[in-house]
Amino acid sequence: MKIPFCKFHGFGNDYIVVERRMLPQEVPQTDLGLEMCERHTGVGGDGLAIIEPDETGAGDFKCEIINPDGSIAGFSGNGTRCAAAYIFYKKLWPVPRVNLNTRSGVKRIRMLEEIAPGHYRFESEIGIPRFSSAEIPILTDVPMDRVIDYRVVAYGKPFEISAVNVGNPVACVFVDEFAPAWRAYGRALETHPVFPERANIVFVKVHDPDNIELRIWERGAGETASSGTCVSAAAVICSVTGKTGRNVMVETEGGTTKFIWRDNGEMVIVGRADLVFCGKY
Q: Nearest CA to 234 among 221, 222, 218?
């Protein structure tokens, strides 16, 4: 059985999108994620997004994200944006707003512009950040309401990490410059024993109160050109530590995302999702 798919990317963070009704029941979705995301023998991607109508009524569609290592993601900001792009590209939904039910709750996504068929600009609600050590989760020496500049030793080096849960656990490390070995540091920190569920690792360089730059190591995916959750986490941590305001432009290797932290606590990102190609696997 051939599985129809489309691949989209958000600033280089690419996701394969499929409809659950098209999947063979005998193949576990984790195995499918491993196979399809493999860049040499599969389609290649930073994740697999599986969508289906949400019969619970909580959202318009359900969206499950599978990482390239076969693990299930709690949420993906860019992954859900790519899923929304697929929904509009395939004309599965009649209005320019769609609610996606994820493992981290219902996410509201609004199409701001159709640049061309398959190419869109979206405003996406990410959720409300959670800061306590138990909610992240991170195994600190004592319970903490906020985890800021917590010292961890990895790869033989001490790191001061500031962490938050934005649908996924994310740990930020502030740097003056990006070290040549940042990928090795990210890999070591992702699986550090203080993170019982592993963590996304983000190295953050603050240019000024309105602009920051990131390098991203995602759990289950490794180095990625962009990430909606990591962008949001870094921006929130910068705000709560007084390094920036609540609205900031976030530069990654894939492009620049506009981040807004509303007064009600909701995190919002504005960015593109672009069609790469469609096919059958």
A: 218
